[in-house]
Amino acid sequence: MNNLSIGSVYQAPLKSLAQKTQKETGSFDQIIKSAIANVDGMGQKADNAIVDMVQGNADVPSTMIEVQKFDISMQLLLAMRNKAIDAYKEVSRMQF
Q1: In this predicted model, what pLDDT tens digit does every residue of 56-86 receive, in sequence order?
Q2: What Å distances lie between residue 40 and 48, 56, 85, CA to CA?
Q3: How far is CA 55 from CA 21, 42, 50, 88, in A?
Q4: In the chain, where does DSSP find H-type helix?
Q5: Using an 8 Å Cβ cutoff, are 43 and 18 in contact?
């Protein structure tokens, strides 16, 4: 009963899914570095889109979409940073 299948649909065993999830998640610093790198990449794409628009190689709507993607990503990253700082301050105020 570990492997379930109905017709051509197959349910993977739960144990292998749990192992896969554990392997895919990295340490906290790796996740943060990856998020920062992702936002940085979006910033570079937005910069390139602006340059392309100024040179006449791209239209305004596609450029604005790239800039808005970067803006939203940066806002999310800053919100995460602020929450992490608040959590650190809260822990530092605790008395043991």
Answers
A1: 999 999 999 999 999 999 999 999 999 999 9
A2: 12, 24, 21
A3: 45, 20, 9, 46
A4: 14-24, 28-55, 60-93
A5: no
